[in-house]
Fold Potassium transporter.
Amino acid sequence: MPINLHSFVLLLAAAVITVVVCRKFKLPAMLGYLLVGMLIGPYALGFIQSSEQASHLAEYGIVFLMFTLGLEFNLAKLNAMKRIVFGLGTAQVGAVLVFIAAAVMLAGLDWRAGLVLGAAAAMSSTAMVSKLLSDRGELNAPHGQNAIGILLFQDLAVVPFLIIIPALSLPDGSITIPLINLEVDQLLFALFLASLKIVFVLVVLLSLGQKIMRPWFNLVAKQHASELFMINILLVTLGTAWLTEEAGLSLALGAFLAGMLIAETEYRYQVEDDIRPFRDLLLGLFFVTVGMNLNFSILLSEWGMVLTSLLLLGPVKIALIAALAKLFGSSPGSALRTGFALGQGGEFAFVLLALIGQGGLVPSPILQAATAGVILSMLITPMLIQHSDKIVLRLASSEWMSLAANLHNIAVRSMAANGHVILCGFGRSGQSLARILSQEDIHFFALDLDPEKVREAASAGESVVYGDAAKREVLIAAGLMRARAIIVTYSDTHSAMKILELAHQLRPEIPVIVRTQDDSDIDLLKNAGAAEVVSEIMEGSLMLASHTMMLLGVPLNKVIRRIREVRETRYQLIRGFYRGLNEDTDETDRQQPRLHTLQLTQNAYANGYTIAELKLDKLQVEIRSIRRRNTPPFQPEQDFQLSTGDVLVLLGEQENLAAAEMLILQGK
């Protein structure tokens, strides 16, 4: 029965609300789609009955998912990570598949059911894991590299599984090959025929496609019509998928091959951006239909199977992956983190489970339990990864030694530093800033999570060590209590918020400057205690404006003045600066207003006074902001009463600041 407009509007409304809630709590959107399907499906609220047309439409989401996977298929990347991808990745998929298959067969099902359920259980969520590791800045960490390598192999393993599972659904028996009059097993012949087909299709598409794809896209791109380019992408994707389906293979395989062909052209990134809305929309619909197929009555009656499925996808899968990672040379802590990252089901597990259901390879209650186990494991994963550090420290005693050794190394390297600047991140921005600081004889100490970058920079004599600046112990070891400022040089709001929280707890008066991509998170970071937030887009626009005005003949001094006015409006701290021990003190410098932080001690004169009563305006000094414990910095009113522990940020000239400090602390 086709889905009616009323039901479709309800589906869209529920999806929008649920996904907004998921994003607010930093959960993957796919979980929102699954929850929507569970709530509005025929087995819960019943707003939408199972619709065959909706399921067919959702299949195209898988087509576009496989297409984007093909776009990301990179032979150079595979070669660079071949030990992890083809070594650890093969071992992970094989070990999980064999273990689950054995468990299923011991439960009384045949080997086919065990094989297909093992294949589904071997898959993890590429979208979820890569997003969570990226948010934590752990993609370049050893466990992050392990996880990405294994996920890459899992994505490749999906292709043969898409061929094998439909073949396994054929009934037992033998057939006779007419020409040679040979009787063979029907299943083996189907697998052999599928293998021949895929080899033939691969040879034809990859040999002819390489010669056709680039000239064809060049021809379309020369027309300078965005809608034509979009139509061409749909034609190539769906056309290739149709060809493989006609050859007796799957739509998803054809889409994967189409992505591989386009990945070799210069249009790869443009295509990926254009196709993303279609992929996300249809893939979301796929997850909704998965949720709709969950029968809650079966789940309640078969709760034992659901719990077993969740245990196999959780502790058992985590233990298997951790053991394999350790076998391949990872430290115990890194191996456990790899297991925590991948110990869940994934989006391709749903694809394989859907194929299993179509072929009738597994009884419906077990299939429902397996689907529920995948969903529950994905719901648990964000919390598990978030607390993985604490769990690893409890389970791996050697992790304490490794952590202590790393902290000792950081502490030894930073021991001589005093009045230095802590650079969080040593990428391009961090390195450029480090060079400028060095030219001004301002000492810095950098922390970065890329071990290769740290090794090369340290070998060149740079003051940089491996460490996560978003961890309390690392910041303390880096000399937080002796530092003059903290600069977050990378654009990662989640990590920056952690650093701001730690700095506020440990040393409230230290200024923290944060880099961000645009203006969307400025208020959030400011409220968290950032002294200033530097927007890349804002600074880029100012440089474009200055060059444009100069090329148009505007005098240089007027250009500088205009840019300065904009920056003074945008950045509060641009009117002053924090004074250091090694700064020049010529007459021009003395006349410039500067910033000075001052914390009120228990015996400070200003305790209990309002700002108006101190009459700092007579000294030409103003209080720019105040930070009180457990509150973000704010601009106070004149009737604000000061108390012990308040951190004041004063603005004024050097001599006036000294007089103001004496007044505030001693009443002189």
